[in-house]
Amino acid sequence: MAYDLLIKNGRVVDGSGGPAFYADVAVQNGKIVGVGKFTESAARTIDADGRVVAPGFIDHHTHYDPQALWDPLCNYTVQNGNTTVVVGQCGQTIAPARPGDQRVNGVNFTWGSIAEYLDALGQRRGVNVGALVGHSGVRRYVMGEAASERAEATAEEIESMKQLVREGMLAGALGFSTTPKDRDDPAGVAAEEERYMLGSVLGELGTGLFQWLEDSFREGIRAYGSCISITAGPIFNLRLGLDVPQDEDLISPHIMFAGMPTWDSVMARPTPERMRAFRDTEIRRALSAEAVEGTVAQAAPGTDRRGSPRGFFNRRWDLVEVFMAHQERNRQFEGKSVEQLAQEQGKGIMEAFLDLSLDEDLETHFLCVDRNVDVDSQRQILGSPYTVIGTTDGGARPDTMDRYEYSTNLLGYWVREKQIMSLEDAVYRLTGKTALMHELHDRGFIAPGKAADLTIFDADTIASKPREPVDYPPAGANAKHVRRGAIGIDYVIVNGEVLLEDGEHTGALPGQVLRGPLYQG
Question: Could you say which protein family the record assigns here (predicted)?
Answer without folding.
Answer: Belongs to the metallo-dependent hydrolases superfamily. Hydantoinase/dihydropyrimidinase family.
